[in-house]
């Protein structure tokens, strides 16, 4: 019995020995570590959520010590300091002020910084103008929403005179649950409380019986053509979608880092020839759409047989930098050209064409490094060239690059912005070497800017002449006085397309001059380029 009591006493003493108890110092250290983990998690997933890049997040998540994370946070804000000469980081202070404002004014069941209004406010700052309808109720639609009257949920409209990379923007937030949580609307009909109620809240065209609710442009993608019945404004201009597209882009990891290394080590050799061209089209007064089109002759590529197909795979890498060596755009991609055994010989006489569309600032010089790699043979081609986007003013009549295309097709509906060879609502595939087979038409695409609009017809009045020149002599001219070439127009641009017949053109080199005369504004502009006609028999060989 005494032995048993002795064992119990020893066990109790051992359990309560000082060596097993954490000291106050250890407790304080553990508490600080826990607080540190909570602090950095909050910083990563709340404070810096709308600022940190994917690459920065990946680096931060690999850090293990508190010291490393503290140094990262310090450098994170230092890189974003707009003026390192001042004692405070103005961007950091403004960022936390915006978070505090969002939490104070936009909190519902969701913290303010997490809501749609909070996110937009934190990223872009306070809007320049706000229209609030906190109670909803009766609403008279403006013409661009179809007119008529309806009942709406609570909603707000925010206007930004300028949003980085987008220009002037109108945003709409709707509270369909009337709980104070406003959500960013994808279309102006989300605030309509009557949109699913038959016979209620009809637009003017629906009241006339010309359309039904199912015809509204935002209900189905195929209803885009119904926009004419709803007087839709410039937000649905096909070129406006380029502006929206650029804002939605996020840089993704480079897929072919070995091609990037070619640029980093300044490699100048090349054993895979290819042709490249850059063209310029106005987006707005500050930015230019720059399609980069590349063609690789299939005869220079290595084809590998995979089952019944013969395939060549090509990788592309491009980087655009400013004269100060700041990276403006970086991208990589790949493309596969595949033919059956019966079509392989014919396919090897063709070319593989790739296009990347960039948006660059006007009046700035850039450098483009473009790398092409045959993934089957390992051959690499390198081109370095300058890019100089022109400045398109607002008064003088000007023209874009003149595209000579082997494919030019008007589209009946808006295409996906990621789709190659699409400018607005026209599919255009430029001929990089500007060679065309005899009797195949030459597609012409041109944009004219700052054309006047006839107030009577609400359309421009243009005279467009297409003149073919050989050895300095004009050999043919086609004049369009009726607007047949006009594919699209607005107060900023007129898009002209034309198929130039080549039946009467002998093989050889030619020049095409396109002159656009504005009969209302009294201005004119001319664009020209050279091209080559190849005999059909030569093309086959």
Question: What would you say the CATH architecture of the largest domain is?
Answer: Sandwich
Strand count, sense and barrel status of the largest sheet are:
7 strands, antiparallel
Number of helices: 11
Domain tally: 3
Write down the CATH topology of the largest domain: Immunoglobulin-like
Strand content: 25-35%
Q: Could you name the CATH class of the largest domain?
A: Mainly Beta
Uncertain spans: 1-19, 220-231, 248-253
How confident is the prediction overall: mean pLDDT? 83
Number of separate strands: 27
What best-fitting shape do the alpha-carbon axes yield?
globular
Write out key terms for the chains shown:
single chain, 541 residues, alpha+beta, Immunoglobulin-like, 7-stranded antiparallel β-sheet, 11 helices, 27 strands, 22% helix, disordered N terminus
Commentary on this structure:
- This protein has 541 residues and is of the alpha+beta class.
- It folds into three domains: 127-236, no CATH class; 251-391, Immunoglobulin-like; 393-541, Immunoglobulin-like.
- The protein has helices at residues 2-15, 24-47, 54-62, 66-79, 90-105, 116-124, 204-208, 240-248, 257-264, 344-348, 536-540, and strands at residues 129-133, 137-140, 149-152, 155-163, 167-174, 183-184, 275-278, 281-282, 287-297, 304-306, 309-322, 327-340, 351-361, 366-374, 380-387, 398-399, 403-410, 422-423, 426-430, 435-437, 442-449, 462-470, 473-480, 486-489, 493-500, 508-518, 524-534.
- The strands form six sheets. Strands 16, 17, 18, 19, 21, 24 and 25 form a seven-stranded antiparallel beta sheet that branches. Strands 10, 11, 12, 14 and 15 form a five-stranded antiparallel beta sheet that branches.
